[in-house]
Every structure is written in C-alpha cells, then in structure tokens.
Amino acid sequence: MRKLYLLLTLLSALSLSACIINGYVKNENGQGASDVTMTLSGPKSETVTTDATGKFQFDDKHNWLPVGTYTVTPAKDGYRFFPSRRTVTITTRDYNGTDTAWPVNNVDFEAKAEIDGTDPIILGVAGPHSGDLVSYGIPSIRAAELVAEKFNTSGGLLSRKVEVLPKDDECDPDLAATVANEFVADKVNLVLGHNCSDAAGAALPFYTENNIISMSPSASAPELTQSGDNPTFFRTIVHGGRNAELAVSFAVKQLKSDKVAILYETSAYGQGFAEYAKEYLTGYPGVEVLFYEAFGYRDRDFSAPIVKIKQLGVDCVIFAGHHTEASLVIRQMRDLGVKTDVVCSDRVMDDVFIELAGQDAEGVYAIGPKHLTSNPMYVDATEEYNSTYGSEPGSYFYEAYAGALVLCNAVKMANSTGSDDILQVLRSKTFETPLGSISFDDKGDVIGTGSTVYRVKGGMFVEYDY
Asked: Is the pTM of this model over 0.85?
C-alpha cells in the first residue's frame, strides 16, 4: 500500500502541473508588478491577480485547463503593458494513452505606468547655485533631477510628472526668504533644501505657515529641529551637536589635546557647532578651552586670532565654518609657523577646500557624513551621476539624493500630495536610501546615519581609521 500511495501522488502532481499557463508582469527595472488583473479567455475563462513578485497562474482553480488557444490580457489603472496581450496554445501529447495538456510557462509582460495630463508634482530645490558655496548646491539639483527621472521613466509619481524647480539662495538669508515666498506662489509640493542653516532658518517660517514640507541635505544647525518651531522640516544629515561631540571626542581621546581653541563663524551653523563643542569639552577634566572667538562670514584676514592661538600654546584648533574660510585659516596658520592640529566641522569636507588650501591641507581633519559605499543604492546613485554628468558627485549629493527619494516615496506611500498625509508617513516609516535604512525622530532629525572623521591625505579626504 505504501508504494501504491507514492505512485498515485506522483501521477497527481504531474497532472496538476501540466495544465497551467503562468508568467510574470514586471516593470522596466525588472521588479514585479503586483495587483495586475490578468484575464484568460479561450476554451476556459479565468481572472487572477499578480502577487507581490508579479507572478500569475491560470489553472482553472486547480482543475485541468483543456487544450486549445488562449488569450492572456493584463490590466491595471494607470499602466500600459507590453505586449498588450499574448496568445498561447496548450498542446497535447499521448501519456499512458491519455491526452495530457502540457504547461505553458513564461507568458511574461512589461508594465509601464502612464503619466496623465494633470499638473506635475513640483519639487523645489533651494540652495547656493552660484557664489562661493556653489559646490554645496549643484549636487542637490542633480540629485533631484536623477530621482525625478527615475520616477518619470516609470510612469511618474501618482501618475503625475515630477518637475524639479531650482532656485538660487546663495546661502543668503534674505535671498532664502525670497525663494521661499516664490515657492509658495509657485505652489510647490515639496522642497529639497535649503543647504545652509541661516538660509534654512530664514525660509522655514514661510514653509511652516503654508504647511510645505522641506528636507535639507546639509543644514545642520541644531535649533532648526531642536527648537520644535519647524514641524514640516526634516533633514538627512545629523544635527551639528552630534558632529561637535565627535570632533571633541576625537581631539581629546585620539589627538590627546588638553589645550583647545575654538574658532567659529558667526552663523547659526558655526555658532551652534561651537557652543556644543565648548559644552562637551567641559566633560573632560584637565582639558582647557584657552581660546573661543568668532569671525565673520567672508572674513579674509585671520592673522590676529592665529597669533593669539600661537601665543597661548594651543595644541588643537576646532574650526566651525565653511571651506573657503577654513582654507584661509589653514594657509595663514602655516605661514605663521603654527603647526597645531586642526579638526574642522563638516562644512569643510569638500574638495574645494583642498583646492584652495593646496599643500597646507595635508593632515587636516574634518568631520563628515558616514557613507555606506558598499550599499547597492549608493553604488547605483554614483553610477547614475557618473553616466549622466560625467564627473564624481560633490558635497552632500548622497544626502540630497536620499532626501529627494524619501520625499517622493513618502508621497507614493501616502498616495497623496497632501502635506498632512505625507507628514504622517515621514514620521512613521523607514526608507531605503543610499545612506542606508533611515527614518526620522519626532523633531525631524534623521535616524540611521551618522558621521565619522576624515583626514586629508595625498590631496584627498580619506576616512581616518582609529
């Protein structure tokens, strides 16, 4: 009896597997298209729906599909299919004296979402698209363009085209306020930016008042989120307090510094970083802050503070500012014979700093975003940039790409362009990005990414192994 049972089971399995039509529906990226209605017409009629992998199967509810010619037709609102239908034939063979229908596999389709004629979803991109800090701004525009293209070639976002609208604020607060007003008038749906903290601070009241969601790749002044005044603001870079903590820890624990100078820019970004650094240094017994002084944005002569630092016998300078001023400080320090270690804030980690500082940049430390270079999405984003623009990505490109991708995917998850719906998604979901899997806390700060220490070596920033 046992052998007979096994034989009957085998024959049954053969019969059930030999009367089906199956295949996959996939999008242009090779991903399965779910919830596509598949209709079979012919000797038997049947309707099924593709699963999460895009697979479908017709088997007449596990009965034998009879021989004959069938037509398979896919359908889903907002999509076109290639081909629009397929004709397949089930043939017969003699198997132990019985006509047996054999399976027809790989009846596959490609799904392309259609962009309808309704108004586009406008993604405003605000940042320094000209001026001294242009190296921060252009990568954000390009990141937004790449993400928009990704959605648009796959049928858009909610079947609407994603339109990128860049506006230049030059990292100037007055211009940023003007840009924000223009975005409100333009009825943008989302904003990627602003890049600089003072500019973001000037623009955010307009976005808050008009319930417009913005996400910055680089504005790290702590109060932008920690104040709680900007409920529609998010960022994909850690706030400056965390970077200041890392700078202090590295200076004291790794460089063994106990006589520290803090030189900072009089901006929300520079001042916030400096205040946190000074506070964290108080937690290290025996470590003294011998110098704590601000400089103006676009100051060019730093000889006076450098002479003071030299006279005080400082063994480490923590610099909080941008790359242009940092390059001047470094060159003037070396010209005046000051060989002290310098640990810079994240805004210095830019190739422009190395170009401006030249050989004097060698050995300078800087805090910068920790990148997961082995992450497939990071690799893909890099390749997209290289092939499209013919160069390597610039500063904060990956943070901007992540921000644009998160904003668009939040719209998709919410199935809405309503800010309240999108906010609910942003505050509750995790997003896959080139930075890894990220989410946001209740204040809008990113969770899941961080910073590390870099050092200029051989004319380039290299992650410091310690």
From this structure: no
